[in-house]
Amino acid sequence: MYDDIKAVRGVEDVNNFWKALANHPQTLAQVWSEVKAVMAPGALDPLVKEMVYVAVSATNGCEYCTYSHTAAARAKGMTEEMLGELLAVAALANKTNRLANAYRPPVDDAFRTT
Amino acid sequence: MYDDIKAVRGVEDVNNFWKALANHPQTLAQVWSEVKAVMAPGALDPLVKEMVYVAVSATNGCEYCTYSHTAAARAKGMTEEMLGELLAVAALANKTNRLANAYRPPVDDAFRTT
Amino acid sequence: MYDDIKAVRGVEDVNNFWKALANHPQTLAQVWSEVKAVMAPGALDPLVKEMVYVAVSATNGCEYCTYSHTAAARAKGMTEEMLGELLAVAALANKTNRLANAYRPPVDDAFRTT
Amino acid sequence: MYDDIKAVRGVEDVNNFWKALANHPQTLAQVWSEVKAVMAPGALDPLVKEMVYVAVSATNGCEYCTYSHTAAARAKGMTEEMLGELLAVAALANKTNRLANAYRPPVDDAFRTT
Amino acid sequence: MYDDIKAVRGVEDVNNFWKALANHPQTLAQVWSEVKAVMAPGALDPLVKEMVYVAVSATNGCEYCTYSHTAAARAKGMTEEMLGELLAVAALANKTNRLANAYRPPVDDAFRTT
Amino acid sequence: MYDDIKAVRGVEDVNNFWKALANHPQTLAQVWSEVKAVMAPGALDPLVKEMVYVAVSATNGCEYCTYSHTAAARAKGMTEEMLGELLAVAALANKTNRLANAYRPPVDDAFRTT
């Protein structure tokens, strides 16, 4: 498993997340398989996917994930300006999510039919 | 304020979120100003920003926001395939965030220095 | 238990939350006892406590709780202006929480020693 | 920007959060402007606002924010007893939010009409 | 895929979650495969797994998931008393999580070495 | 209070969580009383309860709680294999919670009537 991770990623050692998952080999195999499939190029490019990962990880407050996926996004070409805009969007979403949760506007019909 | 929202968005009526915010005019003015600035084209294109908004809103479980920003992303060109990939990434991030939270691997030095 | 709830609150019927908890009498008794003790006047007044409850409930996206505690705060004197300011603070906190989660500034020494 | 922060707050140096935001000057300017407006005295006093900030930050598990806003609330007069009551309310809200999420009582009509 | 779901579960129709996932066939296939593997009998019995699912879903406030997994747990033998105790634990955990987040006790050495 | 904690748990010193709660004696007394009642053997055995606690704490990203309750579950007999399966379920739930939040399938009638 580690050899495949190193080959696909072009790295000399796997990072600590994968070593931790090795405590439960089925989980290690399942997660690595899913990461390879989901993060591959498709209708969305890998950098966009990596930035979505950063936004979700910051929303959940996962320290390890925020560090590792910010580094991964930079390795795929994310600039400081792109990171700045990404986090401004994620922060704004976290803010308006709570305004909607509290003021409770009914969902507009137009949004349900698209 | 409503007139500016209608003009910028090219819509005939503002949606229910803005009507709810009108209960506190300072918040309505502040949020609209921030949305215009943050969601404008920049280093990231508006569709990517809208998709990040969907991923964060689904992570937080905000019903109104998930509906409204999914509709907005579709209006900006998001296909079903793009939505499918976006949610697969967001779902995977939510999963690995908790594996990292529980197994607690130390943050790799390489991630801190990039 | 219902009689005590009605007497303490001065209401003619208990609301649906308490009826739902009646499925597990120990939980009903424990929660009612805790609510009475924690929400009573103390170093903080009951309206401040009720507004904190609204802010936490909106953060967690609990629909029932947002409705019930917003109503309770209004019954204790919260005006629309106070609600507007409360939600502006809660929304801002949700936003800056994620900026801190993502940019990861080290905690200033001064904050640890107070 | 730093000079304004130091002047408004009466501090000799800005704390690490603002230095981190300086990576994206638009975000630094926007957040500081919003913090000044939202946290100012109004229908709610600044100490109440600061305590709401602590409750939301603890709910979201933001380490930096919990430290910084607890220190800020103490600087504005929060005693240990007030902190104890604040956290007891926030903890209780987090608990009953999940009981409501799981038992799913319907929202009482009385809560929707106030 | 639907036939396999019906056969494994012994049901006449698949529920709405699977129909929604059909919008993105790769996600439908991946999630169904993972659910079959992860929820199967193992070191933990399926009822315990289903109850863990309910606790997580209530913590996240997912309405659909709370309903569907509570029904699934009941189908596997969960009584009202077991549900009551399950939710009392989940609610308590949500409460003490925030007390720990706010009071920030250092992690005891004994917990790191086990 | 500390003596009772040491006696019930059979430990020589209380852990840091309880020392932190001592800042607000009412909270210390209330939480200890609730923990003793809720975590005691009942319709669910204490190990199952402890594992639910771990799953909720990982979902919320509470570092202290994840460490302390993982240690407690191990002390009650949780093996590495059981931990692996527990976290696989918790991670999967976090993932499908967001797929349901975003695709928004209507709750099946069958789930509401059981």
Please provide a written account of the structure.
- The structure is a homohexamer of 114-residue chains.
- With 114 residues, the first copy, chain A, is an all-alpha fold.
- The first copy, chain A, contains seven helices and no strands.
- Chains in contact: A-B, A-C, A-D, A-E, A-F, B-C, B-D, B-E, B-F, C-D, C-E, C-F, D-E, D-F, E-F.
- Chains A and B meet through helix 2, helix 3, helix 4, helix 5 and helix 6 of A and helix 2, helix 3, helix 4, helix 5 and helix 6 of B.
The chain pair with the largest interface is:
A-B, 66 and 66 residues
Instruction: Detail the poorly predicted runs of chain A.
Output: none
Shape label of chain A: elongated
Cα distance, first to last residue of chain A?
43 Å
| Total beta-strand segments of chain A | 0
What is the makeup of the main sheet of chain A?
Answer: none
The number of helical runs of chain A is 7
Spell out the helices and strands of chain A N to C.
Answer: HHHHHHH
Oligomer: homohexamer
Percent strand of chain A equals: under 5%
Percent in helix of chain A: over 70%
The assigned structural class of chain A equals mainly alpha
Estimate the mean pLDDT confidence of chain A. Answer: 96
Calculate Rg of chain A over CA atoms: 18 Å
